[in-house]
Amino acid sequence: MDSTQVDPETFWDERYGESDAIWSGHVNVALADVVVERELEVGTALDLGCGEGADALWLAQHGWRTTGLDISVVAVQRAQAAAKAQGFSAAQARFEAADLMSWNSDQKFDLITASFLQSPVQFDRTQALHVAQDLVAPGGRLLVISHASFPPWAKDHHEDADHEAKHETTTPESELELLQLDERRWSVEIAELRSREITAPDGKLASLDDTVILARRTGWD
Ligand SMILES: C[S@@+](CC[C@H](N)C(=O)[O-])C[C@H]1O[C@@H](n2cnc3c(N)ncnc32)[C@H](O)[C@@H]1O
Fold first, then answer.
1. Integer distance in angstroms from the first to the last C-alpha of the chain?
2. Is ligand 1 within 6 A of the CB of residue 115?
3. What interhelical angle do 29-37 and 54-61 show, nearest 10?
4. How buried is 157 (Cβ within 10 angstroms: 0-12 exposed, 13-18 middle, 19+ buried)?
5. pLDDT tens, 158-194?
6. Is 27 in the pocket of ligand 1 (CB under 6 A)?
7. Domain count, the chain
């Protein structure tokens, strides 16, 4: 079937329904590294496409008042259960099922994160990340982490056999091109590839590249 005809909510609910947890439950390394090394001041955070909530919960553990959004009700329920199990109140960690294609907010956030907000089915990533830019508070930051490469064995992560659809890989240049950050309003603090170690199914260590963009909102109309 043509991937553009697959309902994204159904696709992602089914994907999450394949097992009790499809992600590791650990924060994405690049997100934790950037927040710590840049000593980002704690405030409000929004995680787009939060999945099972690991990034948002890590932020909450570090004092951020976090909101996580995802189109998959299955993923959001897992994130909510994890937040409850970790003792967070709704003010500390809140998760909501929402389609970023039709979502917006009156609230501004000190940090908006989008980790691997990439989908093999219908999803306008450019639109989602442009809406997000308007929701960053003055002085706040946008952190976008994306797949610059995929491990060869992770076929199901980047290619869905039924839909013959693929995630696109990114580069720092392609991400800056997509974001079109207005230099009168934004200062790009990081635009680079970062490598991380992963374990292959055969137990061997392998290296994978992520594209990392951190931009600060410096101007406001
Ligand atoms: C590759 S996963 C990344 C999940 C998580 N950020 C992580 O790093 O583990 C992409 C996520 O985007 C979500 N997503 C896809 N399309 C979406 C949409 N239109 N609105 C909101 N979330 C969406 C999916 O449900 C999925 O959880």
1. 45
2. yes
3. 30
4. middle
5. 444 443 345 679 999 999 999 999 999 999 999 999 9
6. no
7. 1
